[in-house]
């Protein structure tokens, strides 16, 4: 099998570290690894597949090296600055930031949902927001079978979505120490505030869920609203998703779809206490779907509870799965 | 001012203890206090307003004493068994259990919302479910001003809603110990499971929110669905509430209503990080409303974030407020 030279940009961050772990675990065919980070972290040693590597400083010239794929997870500003440079030098960038997600010339891809969008990439491919990825994996089979009119999202999001700083705030808060990152204590609290606020009263995170869901499902007519909330959980986002389909459905047919759909594990046996849980999803790549119930308050209404590891399926694993899909489709 | 002989049934439980605290703090005119509990707790000493009292065993004969009001919080079975006995002996029972809530002959009352229902009580008055109380306090001004077509609830509920056992599970879970009450770890997890499951796939808690909202607002045509979730928070329930009103509204008018409505504190200045928080609501009697936003996905759509202390406004304080309202209306 052919192997590839892979750069991981932002390799010392939480998602960057997870990218290394997932590349190794999923046995991505890595030839040479190019770990990169900001000047501050350059020179540090990281380990991949049992071998030590020295972290390179991210700079334009770094992409003159023989790199096939660069997995970026170093924040939006860094991506905006360096992804086009890498792309112009023939590197295929899979970018975990929000910098290019809504750029119409950049595909926004979840491999289980819209792999065909990879076919028109121009060397930058955007990895969607964590909370969107798991939602669209769950919604795609419903969308195909019944159509979707409207979605109401309420999320229960883990602190690891804020990286090491959010994680530390929860760890420290549990010990009775002050927050340094979130504006309010996250220990034993729910913060209806993820990313910054916009003029319309929504957070950026909420609007990401609205806009990215439409883009990934190629349907600007989808009506969507979202309330996104940080909860004192370390890993895995949970989501209460209320859906109105276009066509009528039977619940058994819905459950059957979930058993057949790629990337989904149906956990829906509530009388035996089986439903998706953050701590069960942790460190896995699947999207867990359960609490499948009819919403009697509207025609064709459905309630779902959807959980996935936000750092793996919501970030690192989805990026690596995109890389695999590029190989499968002969695009690299 | 006239004072009243008050029994607190289930006085050693978490809500019973809070009832004592609230009676004292709100200066309810208590003449004699009759603390009652099961045989197991009888004989214990409790303190009210600085004075010690011995806990009496709950039995039929206990209500032969000179008691005006009995605040019950000892579970549904105990209420079902003893509330009718107390009521038949002329005691006005304010019952915190679910035993009588949906009984058409029993008023289900939140004083800010439907105090007039007290007028037809027959010595048993039901205190609504914690998650319902805070929701209807927030929804009532909207209902009156604009009408409501449909409500989608997603809740973030504190472990104290399960009493001491739930509280201990979170305390112990944080220390790395096993749960003994919840079927799954509650530390760093979200459990979409409150109370037991019904044949329709909903939990009893979810159906309580549906049915009790309709009863309190006197509107069986209200279309409601709910997903109720236990989160690792000690006190205060948070709720993401999506509402469709009948008439059009302006957001400023909605916010103004919340500033005028009884029992509500509007906290809605997100750019200054002001929105309702569980840890701010803790140990207060108000319902906090914020994240007031238009839901663009539907006509007359509105999103709210509503938080209140589940043990105080969601239980003990609402019961004591009912007792005050009985006095105010000359019903006792």
UniProtKB/TrEMBL annotation, chains A, B:
Gene3D superfamilies: Dihydrodipicolinate Reductase, domain 2, NAD(P)-binding Rossmann-like Domain. Its EC number is 1.2.1.11. Keywords: Amino-acid biosynthesis, Diaminopimelate biosynthesis, Lysine biosynthesis, Methionine biosynthesis, NADP, Oxidoreductase, Threonine biosynthesis. This is Aspartate-semialdehyde dehydrogenase. GO terms for biological process: 'de novo' L-methionine biosynthetic process; diaminopimelate biosynthetic process; isoleucine biosynthetic process; lysine biosynthetic process via diaminopimelate; threonine biosynthetic process. Belongs to the aspartate-semialdehyde dehydrogenase family. PANTHER family: ASPARTATE-SEMIALDEHYDE DEHYDROGENASE (PTHR46278:SF2), DEHYDROGENASE, PUTATIVE-RELATED (PTHR46278). One of its GO terms (molecular function) is aspartate-semialdehyde dehydrogenase activity. NADP(+) binds at residues 12-15, 40-41, 160-161, 310. It comes from the Bacteria. HAMAP family: ASADH. The lineage of its organism: Bacteria, Bacillati, Bacillota, Clostridia, Eubacteriales. It catalyses: L-aspartate 4-semialdehyde + phosphate + NADP(+) = 4-phospho-L-aspartate + NADPH + H(+). Phosphate binds at residue 101. Substrate binds at residues 157, 230. It is an enzyme of class 1 (oxidoreductase). Signal peptide: none annotated. Residues 5-121 form the Semialdehyde dehydrogenase NAD-binding domain. Homodimer. Pathway: Amino-acid biosynthesis; L-threonine biosynthesis; L-threonine from L-aspartate: step 2/5; Amino-acid biosynthesis; L-lysine biosynthesis via DAP pathway; (S)-tetrahydrodipicolinate from L-aspartate: step 2/4; Amino-acid biosynthesis; L-methionine biosynthesis via de novo pathway; L-homoserine from L-aspartate: step 2/3. The gene is asd. Catalyzes the NADPH-dependent formation of L-aspartate-semialdehyde (L-ASA) by the reductive dephosphorylation of L-aspartyl-4-phosphate. The active site is at 130 (acyl-thioester intermediate), 237 (proton acceptor). It holds the Pfam family Semialdhyde_dh.
